[in-house]
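Customer escalation, tier 2.

The customer says the design service returned an amino acid string that "doesn't look like it belongs to this structure." They asked us to rerun it and document both sides in this ticket. The original C-alpha cells are below, unchanged.
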C-alpha cells in the first residue's frame, strides 16, 4: 500500500510539472507584454509624479518576483518540516525513503525558481549594457528618464540576485539533508544486517508460545476481513476480481499468444542448435515471469484501489504475491537451463538425474526463502514479538544451508560417454567445496545469532544468482545473434527476409540491432531486480531513473537522456521533412517551371544544408545543451581549428560560393587543369567531374575557385567547331572552298547564323592549308558531325581528283674525293606532299676524285668505307 501511494504521488508530481510547463508559456508572454508597456510609458509616469517626491519602488510585471518570493518562503517552511522529521529517532527505512523523495522534490522546485528568474536577469543585464554607465564628474548630465530606468533595473536585478542566492543556499541545504538521510539509511541497514540475537532453548520456547498466539490472531484477522468484505465490499471485491481476470487474459494468455513462438520448445527438433536453446531459455524465463508479475501487480492495484484490503491484510497479500512470483521465476529458470525432462534442450552438461535433483534443490530453497518473508510480514502485521521472526529466519537459513550441503554430495555432471540416462559424475572438487562452505557459513552465522545476516546471504544466493544467470543467458543470446550470418537462420530473421525481402547485409545489420536490444532487455530487467534484493526501494529506483533520464550534470551543463532522445527524434524528423520538401520542390515546382538542371541542383543543395542546420540547432536545444555555454569552448578552439582545418574550411566556403555564384552547374562541360569532363555533383567540399572515359575525378572546391576553369556550356551550349584540311599545290583553292562550304551547309544541325565559312590559312611547305569553321547549337553533336564531314570530304575529294598529300623524305649522298673516303651527308630533309605518293629521292653525286689505294687506308676507315659504299649502292 505504501509503495502504491508513493507511485501515485510521483505521478501526481509529474502531472503538476507538465501543467506548470504548459502554463509557463502564457505567463512569459504576459510578462514580456507588460514590460513593453512599462517601457513605452516612462515619460507619462515622470509627468504624473509630483515634483520632489521620490520614485516608487518598481514592481515586476505579472508578479514574477513576488511569486518567486512566495514559492521560496513555502519551500523554506517545507524544508524546516523535513529537517525536523529527519532528526527524529526511530524512523524505519520506508519513512526515510519517503523523506528522501520529499527532499529531492523540494530541491528541484527550488532550483526551478532560479531558472524562472534567469531570463529576466539576462534581459536586465543586456538593457543595462545598452544604457551604459552613469556619466562621471565633468561630463554632461544624461536625461532623467535614462537615470530612472537604470536605477529601476539595478534595483530589480538586486532583488532577483537576492532571491537567487537564497534559492541556491536552500538547494545546498537540501542536498546536505539528502546526504544525511542516505547515511542514516546506510547505518540502519548495517545495524539490521549485523544485529546479533542470542540463540538458546529459551528463545525457541518463547517463539513457540508467541507463534501460537500469532496463528490465532492471524486466523481471526483473516476471518474478520472476509466477513467485512462479504458484507460491505462484495461489489468492490467482485469488480476487482473481474478486472484481475481481465488482466490475466491480457498478460498471461495474450503474452502466450504473441510470444509463444519465441519460447515454446519444438519437440520435433531432435538436436536443436545452441542459439535456439539459448533463445528459448532466456525468453521463456523472462516473458512468462514478467507476464505473471504484471498480473499480480495489477491485481493488487485493483484490490487496493477498490478499498478491499485492510492495512493489516495488504502487506501479507503483497508478500504472498511476491512469494508466488519468486517461486515461479526460479522454477522457470531452472526448467529452462536444466531441462530435467528434455535433455536435448539442456544448456549445461548434466545427467537427467542430476538435472532433476538440482531443479528440486533450487525450487526448494526458493520456497523456503519466500515462505520466510511471508511469515515475516504476517508477524509484523500481527504485532508479534521479534523472537518469532528470529526463530523463523533461523530455521529458514538452516534448511537452505542443509540443502546446499546435500547438493554438494551429488553427482550431477554428465557421464563421459555423453549418455544423459547414465549415472553422472561428481562435482568438480572446487565446486563441491564452495557449496559446502556456503551451507556451513549459513548455518554457523545463524547459530551465533546473526540471523539477519544469514537471511540476507540466503536471499542473495537465490534471488541474485537467479537474476545473474538470466542476465548471462541474455548476454550470450545477444552475442550469438550478433554474429555474422546467424540472425538470418532464426525464425525472426526468416520472417523479415520473406516479408521485406531483405538481403544478407540488411539481415546482418538487423541481427546486430537485435543483439543490442537483447543486451538492453537483460540489463534493464536484471539491474533493478538486483538493486531491490540488495535493500533498495522502488522509490530509490524511481528517483535514480528520474535523475538519469532528466538530469545529468557535466560541469555547469545539465543534460538528460529524455532530452537527448527527443533531440534525436527532432533531428530525424527535421531531416525527413527537409528531404521531402526538396523532392516536392524539385518535382512539383521547378520541374514544371522548366528550371535549368543546374539551378535545381543548387536550390536543392542549399535547402538541404539549411534544413539540416536548423534541425541540428533545434535538436541540440531540445537536448538541453546550452549553446551559449559552448561559445567559450568554441572561441578557445577557433584558432586551432582555423590552422588545422583551414583547407576544409576553404573548400567549404568555396563550395558555398560555387552554389551561389554558379560559375558552372551540374551537367556542364568544364576544363580545369588536366581535368575535363561533365560536372556530376557539387558538394560543399569537392566537385565530382566525370571524364569522357567514365572516370570520376574529385576536385576540391578551392582549386576550382582559385584556378582557371573553362566552361563550354556556361551560358548556352552554342559552340564553334573546326576541321583542318590540306590539299596538294596543284589544286584550285576556290574550288576546294566551294566544295567544303557545300558539304557543311548540307548538314541540318549546322547553324546558318553565324554562317559557316572556310579559311585559307597558309601556303605551307608541302601543301595548301585550309580550315572549315561552323557553329553548332549543341556542342555535344560536334564529334558526330565532324566525323561525318571528314568522310564526306574524303569521298568528294576523290571524286573531284583533289589530292591530299602526306610527308616524305629525300636523302642526298655526297662523296668527298679530296680525302679519299666516302662521306654521306644529309643535304636536306624535306616534307614533300604529293598526290601520287612519295617520290623517289634524286641522288646528287659530286664529281669524285679517285680514292687512294685501299691498303693505304687505316683499318677503321676501310670498314666505314665499305658500309657507306653498301648504303650508297642501296
Amino acid at each position: 500500500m505504501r509503495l502504491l501511494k508513493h507511485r501515485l504521488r510521483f505521478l501526481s508530481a509529474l502531472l503538476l510539472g507538465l501543467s506548470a510547463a504548459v502554463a509557463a508559456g502564457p505567463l512569459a508572454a504576459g510578462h514580456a507584454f507588460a514590460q513593453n508597456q512599462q517601457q513605452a510609458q516612462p515619460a507619462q509616469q515622470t509627468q504624473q509624479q509630483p515634483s520632489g517626491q521620490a520614485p516608487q519602488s518598481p514592481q515586476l510585471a505579472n508578479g514574477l518576483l513576488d511569486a518567486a518570493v512566495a514559492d521560496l518562503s513555502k519551500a523554506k517552511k517545507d524544508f524546516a518540516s523535513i529537517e525536523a522529521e529527519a532528526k527524529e529517532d526511530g524512523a524505519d527505512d520506508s519513512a526515510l525513503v519517503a523523506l528522501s523523495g520529499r527532499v529531492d522534490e523540494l530541491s528541484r522546485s527550488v532550483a526551478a525558481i532560479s531558472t524562472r528568474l534567469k531570463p529576466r536577469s539576462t534581459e536586465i543585464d543586456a538593457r543595462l549594457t545598452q544604457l551604459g554607465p552613469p556619466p562621471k564628474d565633468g561630463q554632461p548630465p544624461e536625461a532623467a528618464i535614462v537615470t530612472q530606468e537604470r536605477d529601476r533595473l539595478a534595483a530589480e536585478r538586486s532583488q532577483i540576485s537576492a532571491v537567487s542566492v537564497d534559492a541556491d543556499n536552500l538547494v545546498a541545504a537540501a542536498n546536505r539533508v539528502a546526504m544525511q538521510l542516505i547515511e542514516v539509511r546506510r547505518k540502519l541497514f548495517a545495524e539490521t544486517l549485523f544485529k546479533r540475537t542470542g540463540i538458546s532453548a529459551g528463545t525457541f520456547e518463547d517463539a513457540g508460545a508467541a507463534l501460537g498466539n500469532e496463528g490465532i490472531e492471524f486466523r481471526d484477522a483473516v476471518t474478520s476481513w472476509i466477513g467485512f468484505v462479504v458484507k460491505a465490499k462484495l461489489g468492490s471485491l467482485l469488480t476487482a476480481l473481474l478486472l484481475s481476470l481481465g488482466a490475466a487474459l491480457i498478460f498471461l494468455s495474450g503474452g502466450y499468444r504473441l510470444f509463444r513462438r519465441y519460447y515454446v520448445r519444438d519437440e520435433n527438433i531432435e538436436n536443436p542448435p545452441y542459439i535456439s536453446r539459448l533463445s528459448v531459455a532466456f525468453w521463456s524465463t523472462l516473458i512468462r515471469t514478467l507476464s505473471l508479475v504484471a498480473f499480480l501487480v495489477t491485481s493488487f492495484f485493483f484490490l487496493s484501489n477498490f478499498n478491499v484490503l485492510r492495512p493489516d491484510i495488504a502487506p501479507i497479500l503483497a508478500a504472498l504475491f511476491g512469494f508466488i512470483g519468486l517461486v515461479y521465476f526460479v522454477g522457470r529458470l531452472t526448467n529452462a537451463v536444466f531441462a530435467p525432462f528434455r535433455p536435448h534442450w539442456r544448456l549445461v552438461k548434466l545427467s537427467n538425474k542430476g538435472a532433476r535433483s538440482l531443479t528440486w534443490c533450487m525450487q526448494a530453497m526458493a520456497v523456503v526463502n519466500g515462505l520466510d518473508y511471508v511469515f515475516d510480514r504476517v508477524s509484523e502485521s500481527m504485532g508479534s514479538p521479534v523472537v518469532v521472526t528470529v526463530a523463523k529466519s533461523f530455521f529458514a537459513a538452516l534448511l537452505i544451508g542443509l540443502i546446499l550441503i546435500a547438493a554438494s554430495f551429488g553427482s550431477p555432471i554428465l557421464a563421459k560417454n555423453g549418455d544423459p540416462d547414465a549415472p553422472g559424475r561428481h562435482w568438480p572438487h572446487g565446486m563441491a567445496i564452495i557449496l559446502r562452505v556456503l551451507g556451513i557459513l549459513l548455518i554457523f552465522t545463524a547459530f551465533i545469532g546473526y540471523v539477519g545476516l544469514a537471511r540476507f546471504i540466503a536471499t542473495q544466493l537465490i534471488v541474485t544468482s537467479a537474476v545473474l544467470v538470466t542476465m548471462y543467458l541474455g548476454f550470450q543470446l545477444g552475442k550469438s545473434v550478433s554474429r555474422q550470418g546467424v540472425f538470418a537462420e532464426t525464425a525472426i530473421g526468416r520472417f523479415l527476409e520473406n516479408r521485406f525481402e531483405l538481403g544478407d547485409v540488411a539481415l546482418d545489420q538487423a541481427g546486430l540491432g537485435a543483439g543490442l536490444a537483447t543486451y538492453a532487455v537483460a540489463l534493464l530487467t536484471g539491474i533493478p531486480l538486483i538493486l531491490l534484493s540488495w535493500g533498495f526501494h522502488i522509490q530509490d529506483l524511481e528517483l535514480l531513473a528520474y535523475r538519469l533520464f532528466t538530469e545529468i550534470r557535466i560541469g555547469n551543463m545539465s543534460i538528460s537522456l529524455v532530452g537527448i532522445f527527443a533531440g534525436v527524434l527532432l533531428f530525424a524528423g527535421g531531416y525527413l521533412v527537409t528531404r521531402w520538401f526538396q523532392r516536392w520542390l524539385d518535382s512539383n515546382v521547378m520541374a514544371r517551371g522548366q528550371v535549368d538542371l543546374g539551378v535545381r541542383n543548387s536550390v536543392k543543395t542549399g535547402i538541404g544544408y539549411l534544413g539540416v542546420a536548423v534541425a541540428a540547432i533545434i535538436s541540440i536545444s531540445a537536448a538541453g545543451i546550452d549553446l551559449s555555454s559552448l561559445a567559450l569552448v568554441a572561441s578557445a578552439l577557433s584558432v586551432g581549428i582555423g590552422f588545422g582545418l583551414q583547407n576544409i574550411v576553404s573548400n567549404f566556403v568555396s563550395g558555398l560560393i560555387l552554389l551561389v555564384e554558379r560559375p558552372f552547374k551540374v551537367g556542364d562541360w568544364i576544363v580545369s587543369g588536366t581535368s575535363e569532363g561533365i560536372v556530376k555533383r557539387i558538394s560543399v567540399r569537392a566537385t565530382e567531374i566525370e571524364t569522357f572515359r567514365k572516370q570520376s575525378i574529385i576536385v576540391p572546391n578551392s582549386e576550382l575557385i582559385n584556378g582557371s576553369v573553362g566552361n563550354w556550356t556556361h551560358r548556352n551550349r552554342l559552340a564553334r567547331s573546326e576541321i583542318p584540311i590540306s590539299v596538294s599545290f596543284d589544286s584550285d583553292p576556290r574550288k576546294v572552298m566551294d566544295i567544303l562550304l557545300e558539304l557543311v551547309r548540307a548538314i541540318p544541325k549546322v547553324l546558318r547564323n553565324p554562317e559557316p565559312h572556310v579559311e585559307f590559312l597558309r601556303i605551307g611547305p608541302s601543301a595548301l592549308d585550309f580550315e572549315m569553321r561552323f557553329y553548332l547549337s549543341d556542342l555535344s553533336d560536334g564529334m558526330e558531325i565532324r566525323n561525318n564531314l571528314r568522310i564526306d570530304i574524303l569521298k568528294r575529294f576523290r571524286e573531284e581528283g583533289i589530292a591530299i598529300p602526306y610527308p616524305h623524305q629525300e636523302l642526298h649522298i655526297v662523296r668527298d674525293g679530296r680525302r679519299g673516303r666516302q662521306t654521306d651527308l644529309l643535304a636536306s630533309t624535306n616534307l614533300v606532299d604529293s598526290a601520287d605518293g612519295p617520290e623517289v629521292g634524286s641522288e646528287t653525286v659530286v664529281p669524285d676524285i679517285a680514292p687512294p689505294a685501299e691498303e693505304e687506308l687505316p683499318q677503321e676507315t676501310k670498314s666505314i668505307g665499305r658500309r657507306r659504299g653498301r648504303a650508297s649502292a642501296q
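Tier 2 assessment: The sequence is consistent with the input. Residues 144-193 form the longest helix (50 residues). DSSP finds 24 helices and twelve strands in the chain. Sent an explanation to the customer and offered a walkthrough call.
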